[in-house]
Write a structure and sequence with these properties.
The complex is a heterodimer of chains A (312) and B (282). Chain A is mainly alpha-helical and 312 residues long. Chain A has a single domain, classed as MetI-like (MetI-like fold, Orthogonal Bundle). In chain A, 73% of the residues lie in helices and 4% in strands. Chain A has a two-stranded antiparallel sheet. In chain A, a hairpin with a 2-residue loop joins strand 2 and strand 3. The model of chain A has no long low-confidence stretch (mean pLDDT 85). Chain B is mainly alpha-helical. In chain B, helix 5 packs across helix 15 and helix 9 packs antiparallel against helix 12. Chain B starts with a helix and ends in a 5-residue tail after the last helix. Classes of the chains: A mainly alpha (312), B mainly alpha (282). At the A-B interface, strand 1, helix 1, helix 3, helix 4 and helix 5 of A face helix 1, helix 2, helix 3, helix 6 and strand 1 of B. Strand 1 of chain A pairs parallel with strand 1 of chain B, so a sheet runs across the interface.
Chain lengths: 312, 282
């Protein structure tokens, strides 16, 4: 009953999308690949250099440093945003106008243009006239313009402010999808708040959490506008992430080959994570997967009860 | 009946349980809104005050930023530019994505999984990767520094997004509907436009919102593809912020204005916002 019809004429329906995306993605990517293997002096004078640029990229200390910064940044914001998002989602009201109002208020940071986020935080964090800067200055020295660690902390804080709502909304949607009967069963079993979370909610939230994790990882890996406006990559290179560096190489230094090689490597990393993301997203569209998960939930609930009995 | 039973068992854990939670929630939200309130307060303060006096509640108020925004062609022109390419992009993306999403939700065809995944990779691709080729391509096409260039370029991530979200919504409509329409003698085109599209209008609205939103907040591509003629609001803001002597009041006013469209529309899509951000899969 649920089997989709096999029909290759469906390609006609997909054709417009394929054409559009070919125009906006494939042709540009081919240009990038083309540039990455040759040194362009002028449109008529170019030299084939093979994989030289890729070698340069892999050994360029500035790029390696930017890559590490990206990794550290993503790890830090995930470590803060995921737990905080879960907490906020758990606290959000579930019924009535309050629930609607809460949804809207939580979602507001997500729809703010990225450059406005940067602009706001740029003044907000100023040590002399910004609320955040002045507040922190009461306790310890804070100078976003000169102290690298302060600039970094502000960037992390800004991202947490901007994107934790995404995690909260996803988790909230996940929590709403848990049937009341589950809670009922848990309360009959006398489960505590913690074991309800651990054995009832967490298994059900696994998929939304994976989505949140991957989305936030990929987006934070590509972050550009916010740190660009907040610090411009400074002080020094303290907040210079890969996008900022790439934009500098491509648009300001106009080093086409190097920028192209860098782009391809960058794109490849994202591809790998996209694939993991895709697998997670389409998980329950595979035959048999729902049954398996239900079994798991039942098993984990039994386990929870056992654990409860064991401790009593 | 069942919900009643649960609420009794939950409340029996203590009367103050619910209050404590909602107080904490609104407290967090209050902290969360501080940067935004700060932006709003900046937009009505005097420039001299912003950079010299630290005050939480402005001592004197001026709406010069807003007045200048709406009288200076450079600024309101930038707002119009932004609105025009986001709108164009939204309409095009949804129009192109509708049939494709239908195909993905209803049929299997050779290479469908690969195509679907490949679309996703474009949504996830770092914009910085496409800067250089976009710049050259649109210059060669003579579209550089027009709103069309940005509208087209943003389809890079908005078309895949639209396909994914719409597919999520369409899969919620039972396939029997299509079969019944076929038995009733509807042609595919007539069924799609007069029965199917109206049925998923909520999904289309949400998709349009997300296409609009992601085009609205994007800066890097928009900045690369525009010069003085088609300059979007975000770029206008950042060019001002790199020049000497920043007009913070005007900048903040522009920031507040740039937030307004999003905030208004959230209300209508609040229940679908998680679904949209998760590409139609929550």
């Amino acid at each position: 009953m649920n089997l989709k019809k096999k029909n290759n004429k469906a390609w006609l329906l997909v054709l417009p999308v394929v054409i559009v995306v070919a125009f906006t993605a494939i042709i540009p990517l081919m240009t990038v690949a083309n540039y990455s293997v040759q040194d362009v002096f002028s449109p008529t004078n170019r030299l084939y250099v093979g994989l030289d640029f890729f070698r340069q990229i892999a050994t360029d200390p500035a790029i390696i440093a930017a890559f590490q910064r990206n990794l550290i940044f993503s790890t830090q914001i995930l470590a803060i945003e995921i737990p905080l998002g879960i907490i906020i989602a758990k606290l959000m009201p579930r019924h009535g106008w309050k629930a609607a109002a809460a949804l809207v208020i939580v979602a507001i940071p997500l729809v703010i243009p990225w450059n406005v986020v940067g602009t706001t935080w740029r003044v907000f964090a100023r040590p002399d006239v910004g609320l955040l800067g002045v507040t922190i200055n009461q306790f310890r020295e804070f100078d976003i313009g000169n102290t690298p660690s302060d600039a970094w902390a502000t960037m992390v804080m800004m991202d947490v402010w901007h994107w934790t709502p995404l995690v909260a909304l996803l988790v909230y949607a996940g929590l709403r999808a848990i049937p009341d009967a589950y809670y009922q069963a848990a309360s009959i079993d006398g489960a505590s708040v913690i074991s309800v979370f651990r054995f009832v909610e967490l298994p059900k939230l696994r998929r939304v959490l994976m989505i949140a994790l991957l989305l936030r990882f990929m987006d934070s890996f590509m972050i550009y506008a916010e740190p660009y406006i907040l610090t411009g990559g400074g002080p020094g290179t303290a907040t210079e992430v890969m996008s900022i560096l790439l934009a500098v190489i491509a648009v300001i230094q106009f080093d086409l080959g190097k920028a192209a090689a860098f782009s391809l490597i960058y794109f490849l990393i994202i591809q790998i994570f996209s694939f993991i993301f895709f697998t997670v997203l389409t998980l329950d569209e595979r035959p048999g997967s729902t049954k398996k998960r239900q079994k798991k939930v039942v098993a984990s609930r039994r386990q929870g009860v056992k654990a409860k009995e064991g401790s009593a | 009946m069942t919900t009643q039973a649960i609420s009794i068992t939950r409340e029996s854990k203590g009367g103050s349980y619910f209050d404590w939670k909602s107080w904490l929630f609104w407290l967090i939200m209050a902290v969360w809104s501080v940067p935004l309130l700060w932006l709003m307060s900046m937009s009505v303060r005097y420039n001299e005050d912003i950079l010299s006096v630290f005050e939480i509640i402005p001592s004197r108020i001026s709406f010069r930023g807003y007045i200048e925004f709406f009288t200076e062609p450079l600024w309101y022109g930038a707002l119009i530019n932004s609105l025009s390419y986001t709108t164009m992009n939204m309409v095009l993306s949804v129009a192109v994505a509708l049939p494709a999403a239908y195909a993905f939700s209803r049929f299997t065809f050779s290479g469908d999984k690969h195509l679907f995944f490949w679309l996703l990779t474009n949504r996830m691709a770092p914009a910085a990767v496409f800067l250089l080729p976009f710049f050259q391509m649109y210059q060669a096409l003579g579209l550089f520094d027009t709103t069309y260039a940005v509208a087209l370029a943003h389809m890079l991530f908005n078309v895949p997004l639209a396909v994914w979200i719409l597919e999520g919504f369409m899969s919620g409509v039972p396939r029997q509907l299509d079969e019944m329409a076929e038995i009733d003698g509807y042609s595919f085109g007539r069924f799609f436009l007069t029965v199917f599209v109206p049925m998923i209008r909520a999904g289309i609205g949400v998709t349009a919102f997300f296409a609009f939103m992601f085009s609205w907040v994007e800066l890097l591509i928009a900045r690369t593809l525009t010069g003085p003629n088609a300059m979007p609001l975000g770029v206008q803001m950042s060019t001002t912020s790199s020049a000497a002597g920043l007009d913070w009041a005007l900048l903040s006013a522009a920031g507040v204005i740039a937030i307004v469209p999003g905030v208004i529309v959230i209300w209508f899509v609040r229940n679908y916002i998680a679904k949209g951000f998760a590409l139609g899969r929550v």
